[in-house]
Amino acid sequence: MKTITTTELLDKVDANEDLFLVDVREDEEVANGVIPGAIHIPLGSLPDRIDELDKTKPYIFICHAGGRSGSACSYLTGLGYDVTNMEGGMLAWEGELEF
C-alpha cells in the first residue's frame, strides 16, 4: 500500500498541488475539522458511494489515526483505484483545517 506522511501532504497542500483527498471518518469526527478540499465519505458508506470516485484520479485517504483509511485503501486497490494512505491520520496533521 502506498503511504504519505502528514509532512509530505502538507508540502503538497502548501504548493497548491491538485489533490484528491477523501476523509473516511464519521460525521462527528469531521465536525472537528477536515483538511481543506477533502471530501467526506464515511468508511461504512464507501461501497455505496464508490461511483463518486474516478479511477483515473489518484486519491489520498485520511482518517483519525490511519487504520480506517488503510482499510479503504486496501479495498479500493483491489478494485483498481490509485490510492494512498495518509500515515498517522488527523492525529498527526499539523496543517490548516476547514470546518
Question: Could you characterize what this model shows?
Answer:
With about 100 residues, the chain is an alpha/beta fold. It has helices at about 5-15, 25-30, 65-80, 90, and strands spanning about 1-5, 20-25, 40, 60, 80-85. A five-stranded parallel sheet has the order 1-5-4-2-3. The longest helix has 12 residues, at about 65-80. It comes from Viridibacillus soli. Pfam families: Rhodanese. InterPro entries: GlpE_sulfurtransferase, Rhodanese-like_dom, Rhodanese-like_dom_sf. This is Rhodanese-like domain-containing protein.
Brief descriptors of the model:
single chain; 99 residues; alpha/beta; 5-stranded parallel sheet; 4 helices; 5 strands; globular
Question: What is the beta-strand fraction?
Answer: 15-25%
Taking the alpha carbons of the first and last residues, their distance comes to: 29 Å
Largest sheet strand order: 1-5-4-2-3
In which range does the helix fraction lie?
A: 25-40%
Instruction: Count the E strands.
Output: 5
Average pLDDT reading: 97
In DSSP terms (H or I, runs of 4 or more residues), the helix count works out at: 4
